[in-house]
Amino acid sequence: MTTTVLVTAFEPFGGETVNPSQQAVSRLADGPATDGVQIRTAVLPVEFGPAVEALRSAVATHDPDLVTCAGEAGGRFGVTPERVAVNVSDAHIPDNAGRSPVDEPVVAGGPVAYFSGLPVAAIVDALRAAGIPADKSSTAGTYVCNSVFYGLMHLIATERPGLVGGFVHVPYVHEQVVDRGDQPSLSLDMITEALRITVQTSVGALAAGH
Amino acid sequence: MTTTVLVTAFEPFGGETVNPSQQAVSRLADGPATDGVQIRTAVLPVEFGPAVEALRSAVATHDPDLVTCAGEAGGRFGVTPERVAVNVSDAHIPDNAGRSPVDEPVVAGGPVAYFSGLPVAAIVDALRAAGIPADKSSTAGTYVCNSVFYGLMHLIATERPGLVGGFVHVPYVHEQVVDRGDQPSLSLDMITEALRITVQTSVGALAAGH
Amino acid sequence: MTTTVLVTAFEPFGGETVNPSQQAVSRLADGPATDGVQIRTAVLPVEFGPAVEALRSAVATHDPDLVTCAGEAGGRFGVTPERVAVNVSDAHIPDNAGRSPVDEPVVAGGPVAYFSGLPVAAIVDALRAAGIPADKSSTAGTYVCNSVFYGLMHLIATERPGLVGGFVHVPYVHEQVVDRGDQPSLSLDMITEALRITVQTSVGALAAGH
Amino acid sequence: MTTTVLVTAFEPFGGETVNPSQQAVSRLADGPATDGVQIRTAVLPVEFGPAVEALRSAVATHDPDLVTCAGEAGGRFGVTPERVAVNVSDAHIPDNAGRSPVDEPVVAGGPVAYFSGLPVAAIVDALRAAGIPADKSSTAGTYVCNSVFYGLMHLIATERPGLVGGFVHVPYVHEQVVDRGDQPSLSLDMITEALRITVQTSVGALAAGH
Description:
Four copies of one chain form a homotetramer. Chain A is an alpha/beta fold and 210 residues long.
């Protein structure tokens, strides 16, 4: 039996010319297949409304068993699976369409928050065991990443009860900070491997019925 | 003609069980040889007096053309060739022999400071060109690293005018921070490659007469 | 008509000998009264279960109109009203009773999260207008602070519908970091003033019916 | 007998509209006089050549016994007396005249570095005793601050052997970071008091013959 996994990434934003999530998801898709796992990918725009629409569309197209959304969290030191999605959008910088919501709900009338469906603690353990700096995160922020994460969990809660999903933030990749001197980063190889481990650990938990 | 390069590292200190400089120098020595470059290595104790003695002894043994000392600078984001060694030892934590000098000279009567003999700007350029986060550093601190750097430059200034030398600090390696969540790190492969580039760039400058 | 405000703080924890929230709340209580506002205070233990019990007891005793819980967030740069309390306790260090819950709910069967009842954005605006570094926070962490915040919001949701409450984190006070060199801090005067402004802004919003 | 102390500050730079050193020196000059100490002040331009010229001119005008230069070091957590001035200018951003020297000497043919003439350790002790976060610094950077510091020490070494001088960096003042959320700062009152203590401790050491 094959498990179909949709892994999403984001376009560059905030003045960056690349997004490590996009680079890593592209490599993941081109990499060696894991037995019984079919990877499907989508790159989402960094725009508050359209990002969630693109995610929903990708879910409709690929009909996955598992969704892992990945995004860039510049300034973080390791890979951080997110614990909770919150029903608020509050932009510190405009999104790629120039929109800056202030304290707006992601889904009007939706619950305050959803927990991730991914095995956050097990993913962190697996990443560290592989030598990858990692930590649980308690906030996905209030920017487009969080809105996609919330939108995904709301879709699951309201329309797709059999689907499992969650979000993982990755740090800058080296090329983004090579001459900055004051920002942490990881190699693209390591971030790609981190996404592979995240998917593998999540598929394993799914198979085990967690 | 062969250029003999002495590359030194330090033992672990400050509660750490490894030192990335030691790991990387060991790998560098085991790695593929560069034509015309003969690598010699030494691991120095993290002790204020004996470290400089061990360096002097290694120089006497190997009679190198170039000396690159490497040390760990936990908390830094990239590889940082040091610009200047200062004639002061001031320990924020005891060294591995339990000694904590406070505002003592490294060499009584020595000059205030020495500039590195390595091509610091060219090394940073070469590291960045190779995709390695790097920056010039203006302080090697006042701990054992700086004392070795100063001791090396003083040896060159007073006894070995034909020798060229300098110091490079490297960040934590991933394994040191994998579960800390608040410290930057690089892979051991990248730190090893950074030392290789540092040596290569320095040898090139030496050959070019800079 | 008088508005009764309960302001809570925490005991020292994590190896610290003081807690800025405790110092500031003590000063706030001793300071000049605001017309129409009666301040009541309580100091909570840094223990996962007893902290919430102590909060509930203080609410029962003082029967306040408004509750502002304050806690220390070492490493933050300014005063940060919290946006959301999450139903999880996950200790990175043991609490003062030696207990370290891992991914446990604060309230079994409780909702995933509650939004703060305080006017977070207005408080940040008022703090900045007074020259105090401040920012909205999207995570109160998963330690005792968050558990008290969640416990408060759950109490309000389930038993005290007329009560309004929330949480604000304050940074280290200068005396905690005077010789550390690598941690941000504010003066006790400023932190006290920040709590006064937080209460005043919240009382104002309450009176205005927000 | 009166000790004349020249305290210098800098104009704003780097996109900032204020410079905490300028604000604090202005307040220091307006504050209560210390018996036996006469304060003279100067505000230097943030321009590599003219800054040193302005300093030399202020020394010529006021003929001080002691010179304390103060400058802004955004990102530092406390007040940091500088230990050593280095003979290099290497700008990471253009100065206020648009000039960006790269690895140039401050004084062609000058020594590599000068130690501060101020009692750095005693100043740090006095600041901490007054509750002010403080630390010794081992680098004044390679921007205009360091060039003024080096220029001062070179002036003393070559033309004014009776003069004592040094440099102290101060962090951002609160108003510069009130809405940034990621930068440390101190109050203007505290920075002013820090300069007062720096001067007082330096005058005391001068009187004691250190």
